Amino acid sequence: MKASLLQILWRDSFLRATLIAFFALLIIALFGSFFLEHPQDQNSALQFSPPCSEHWLGTDFHGRDLLARLLSGLRLSLFVGSIGAGVSLVIGVSVGLIAGYFGKKIDLILMRLVDLLYSLPRLVFVIVLISALEKPTAHFLEKIHLSEMLPHVRLLLLFIGLGCVEWLTMARIVRGQVLSLKESTFVLAARALGQSHTQILIRHLLPNLTGIVIVYLTLTIPVVILEESFLSFLGLGVQAPAASLGSLISEGAQYLNPFEIQWWLILFPAGTMALLLLMLNLLGDGLRDAMDPRKKK
Question: Is residue 131 part of a domain?
Answer without folding.
Answer: yes
